[in-house]
Amino acid sequence: GVFITMNPGYAGRTELPDNLKSMFRPIAMMVPDSGLIAEIILFGEGFQNTKVLARKVQTLYSLAVQQLSKQDHYDFGLRALVSVLRYAGRKKRVSPTTPDDEVLLLAMKDMNIAKLTATDTPLFNGIVSDLFPGVDTPQMDYSVMTKAVEAELRKAHLQVTPTAITKVIQLYETKNSRHSVMIVGETGSGKSTTWRVLQASLGRLKKETKDPAYNVVKDHPINPKSLSLGELYGEFDLSTNEWTDGVLSSVMRQVCADEKPDEKWLMFDAPVDTLWIESMNSVMDDNKVLTLINGERISMPPQVSLLFETQDLSVASPATVSRCGMVYLEPSILGLQPFVECWLKTVPKPLREHRDPLKKLYDIYMEPSVEFLRENAKEYVPSVDSNLCGSMMRIMDCFFAPFAPPTKQLGSGSAKTVEVTAEKQSLIAKLIEPWFFFALVWGVGGSCDDDGRKKFDKFLREKMSENSVALPFPPEGLVYDYEIDDLGVGKVSNDDEDDDDGKKKKKQKKVSWVGWMDGMGEVTVDPQRYSDIIVPTMDTVRSAAIMELLLVHSKQVLCVGPTGTSKTLTIANKLLSHMPSDYLSEFISFSARTSANQTQDIIDLKLDKRRKGIFAPPLGKFSIFFIDDLNMPALETYGAQPPIELLRQWMDHDGWYDRKQIGAFRRLVDIGFVCAMGPPGGGR
Hints:
Elements: H1 18-21, H2 34-44, H3 50-67, H4 78-94, H5 100-112, H6 120-131, H7 143-155, H8 162-177, E1 180-185, H9 191-209, E2 217-222, H10 229-233, E3 235-236, E4 243-244, H11 247-257, E5 263-269, H12 274-277, H13 281-284, E6 289-291, E7 297-299, E8 304-310, H14 318-323, E9 325-329, H15 331-334, H16 337-345, H17 355-376, H18 385-400, H19 422-443, H20 450-466, E10 482-485, E11 512-515, H21 538-551, E12 557-560, H22 567-577, E13 583-589, H23 596-605, E14 608-611, E15 614-616, E16 622-628, H24 642-653, E17 655-657, E18 665-668, E19 671-677
Parallel strand pairs: 1-8, 1-9, 2-5, 5-8, 12-19, 13-16, 15-18, 16-19
Antiparallel strand pairs: 3-4, 6-7, 10-11, 14-15, 17-18
Helix pairs in contact: 2-3, 2-4, 3-6, 4-5, 7-9, 8-9, 16-17, 17-19, 17-20, 18-19, 21-22, 23-24
């Protein structure tokens, strides 16, 4: 017999053609009796008094639908209910002496608290306590796991917060109950950190305890939006009828054939939409089988699981949401303080004694500045708070780079470490404040428009005068009009020659704020093409200086501004004429027709093979790719831009998949990106 199951009522689904539909007898499915199903499953799992418990489970889920907020990642349907009851059965077998209602209560909390928002958690707890009056939730012993998580957080220089530990343990429990899990949350909420810490913790526990419950984890990151559907799942060549394997089918076949007990996680880091996720329904449900167009069926063994990392599920279908366990992370719970604490741990050794003054400065200025920016200024491109905080720390890292230990990779940190003399040590104490304010002005205040800069200037000057800063900005102009003359302390090479932009360096006897145009000599115009003449202005000089500061320390740069503000000209002039000799520059222009494949081919062609799986520019060189009109590629049906998703895969996972050798991962090193774009709108 041939059976068709379908639900044509939502995105990503179509009706059957009439000539096919007429050959089948339609059967309408009724809404199932959840109470009866729950009772039967509970009985099968070994619970007593199943009728009362089943009614409680059914009531909890119906009340959750009615009373909790409507979120895209919430699902309180039959699949969620069944998975909770099966999970409760596993808990029951682990601790057979615990009363039934306590086991069920624990299972319902374990399976639901992880996906709830901060406002819905108390509501859910209230419903549960009304349904189970007088029943205390049994406390599970996570001490072994907690110690491993804390050790891994410290090893990665991350802040050990109760929220971070809770989320890692919630992900662990959700993974134990569902083989496909989605980690949902805004940018900067700690999604990647959560799964990486869990991965490292499981490896540590396997090594230390030799417990078979823990296994080493190997992850296989894939960004499905940087590939076409044919490249992801495989496709037939219509002219030759030849089958070409896809990245997912190749990786999954290889991973599922490996019978070692080590865990394998297929990590999908991309926006989830119906264009690609619907084809994975059979893998995500209880069948655990990927069916390809050529008829091949790849079964997924227990040691393989699927992880999805996404910002939201606004365009995912209910079928997708119901098949996955959910872990939701909110940036608001985290705040900015952990970012500061983590960064302070990475400060180079010679500067460790200045951590307390730095911490004090962050406490006084950081959060008020971000709040002021959010309330009073307009950004050309929206940013998240953690990104502003991170931008500021990256600028500070550039000043601290000469004191960091030398690194093997070109462009990351300094080529040599500066010897810290007593004189320099006394200068550093004076420089901590000015360095901080320069980083604050450009890290936090650099993303807003001109009106916002004037408001931020006024706010910062007032805040600095309140706190009696030792070296305030000069009263003329804006705080954006000055750079800090740190007497070469924050630079690896300290000489008094002309710098790249033709500015004459004066020998200063003390640390001071100097205007960007101070020391700029007369501009002599060579007889050449009119269009090639570049007259330096304050905007071009400071943009070029800040860009070089970031690029030579391997930081990625994004320049945003309206049309006609000389973004392309400033960047091109800097990269072609005024960068150190070991930096190579390559130019790529995006248009509405640019595809991810074209972008990947252009970048791959410029790189050589270093060793197996690792590609880089010629030895001793560092390549910087300038991408103009970054936001020009046309949007897909649900808003994704494949070329940008490809670049994001490199930034998150250091590479992408080879297009010729299907399934092989290309790791790209010694490269950086500087991008320019106009504000969204008008085709962007």
